Amino acid sequence: MDLNLLKALNAARRDRQAAILVTALEGGKSWLVMKGDAVEGELGEAIGKAFSTGRSGVVEAGGERLFLNVHLPSPRMVIIGAVHISQALAPMAAMTGFDVRVIDPRTAFATEDRFSGVDLVADWPEDALRDRPIDAFTALVAVTHDPKIDDWPLISALKARAFYVGALGSRKTHARRVERLMQAGLSTDEINRIAAPIGLDIGAQSPQEIAVAVLAQAIAALRQRPDPAGG
Q: Are 186 and 142 in the same domain?
């Protein structure tokens, strides 16, 4: 591989940017396509599908056979609130391939005993996310019911175009949340991206069932959205 091409690909990986290395099977010419780059015709359609599915493979476009090597950042899930739902959700999300972090400044909840083996941060989200900010390949799950804890990461996730943003609470609770977020300067379109009530409507009752509903909804957002990175 050309050294400059390798450097560009490594930089994309480091910066958690989606990229596809395109290689012509005849002749071996390679080039890099970043998420959001304008690519026309059959190749553009194939690249769009590859970004959506995350699957590498051979395609035919413009009379050529090309190999698309897809490089997507690994999906993250940031759970705000070390509550019972989080205790069930964190290990399930990790099993399905998410890099999970649980954040809660309430040290009575954020304990190693309750979250053994989980990346747990007992700090305010503003500080906990400083080293790993929310991006387009992050699912944000806010479940504390406390605006002082939930609102900042919700705003950050919406501004970063996180592929999934969910918040626990009744419709009345969410109506009050919407008012606060509008006062914070978010648009109606941005706020409408919040999944609230959180999770697929499966009639979930227990924390474990709610966790299943949330995880399923997050996976659907990751796999079914045509453009999770907003490009």
A: yes
